[in-house]
Amino acid sequence: MKFKLLFVICLALFPAMKAQKTKSLFNGKNLKGWQVLIGDAEFKVEDGVIVGVSKATRQSTFLATKKEYTNFILEYEMMVGEGLNTGVQIRTQFDDVKKHLFGLQVEGDDSERGWTGGIYDQGRKGWRYPLTYNPNAKNVFRKGQWNRIKVVAYENHIATWLNGVHVADLLEETVETGFIALQVHSAGKDKEGVENKWRNMTITELNTAPDFSQTTAPTISYLTNKLTDAEKKDGWKLLWDGKTSQGWRGAKRDDFPEKGWSISDGILTVHASGGGESENGGDIVTTRPYKNFILELDFKFTKGANSGIKYFVDTDLNKAKGRPLDVSFKF
């Protein structure tokens, strides 16, 4: 049996996409429609190619479109300089006051790690789809050559392809709007002057859902308290519905505690008890028992907090107030 206690999870079924107009993001001549945000690395145009020149600095430089996009198919060719790390930002924003850029990035990676086509949340959450999720795609990247990238972003669903191979399949928790940007990553002195290159950049804005039925990469989801059709088929169940106390009760009572716990915005929270063991509402348990299972959940706690997940709980053996006898995984 499989079930999930999730504050972040999945979804995905889409009809076929209607024909929509494809536009070039780069005119092949100059950087009209683009602007440099933070950093001082050089971007230039040579022979119909955008060239980003690596500079020994601690700060990355980004060349961003002046227009923002939400749902689209983005295609481009990229040549990553030897030993460099780069990427293309999508749905990205820039805080001009804090000089802070944040948003999803489609990775370009010339290192032995080989995570090109993976998805990273720049300036915010870090890796969303590292290629540890799809290790077979690590060998698709062609070092020292042009590589073809395709990105499909529609609502919460984002998928990438590298040289025709499906690399990443991501379901994000939020739908964002933002610009496209090219990155020249911060680098050491040994990488000074090494170049990243981009060409044949096109975008097709979508007003209807594309067909994701041919995706082959493992799906990773960060949606809130939802299961994908694939997860349901595999036997996963939500252990908590994200809205009510249904399926849960106090460890020493037949109903849900009236105090000490709260449910809001898809998050189940236990409140401070002043350091007392199982005080202020006590522990909560599922209303039905489980024996053989895989349990997954997301958790977060404040500084100094002490909590855990208990399993194989017997609420009758321990007579102490609010706390059953159990085996537990401590946080």
From TrEMBL:
Gene3D superfamilies: Exo-inulinase, domain 1 (2.60.120.560)
Superkingdom field: Bacteria
UniProt source species: Saccharicrinis fermentans DSM 9555 = JCM 21142
GO molecular function terms attached to this record: hydrolase activity
Stated name of the protein: 3-keto-alpha-glucoside-1,2-lyase/3-keto-2-hydroxy-glucal hydratase domain-containing protein
Residue spans crossing the bilayer: none
3-keto-alpha-glucoside-1,2-lyase/3-keto-2-hydroxy-glucal hydratase domain ranges (all copies): 22-204, 235-314
Keyword Signal applies: yes
Leader peptide range in chain numbering: 1-18
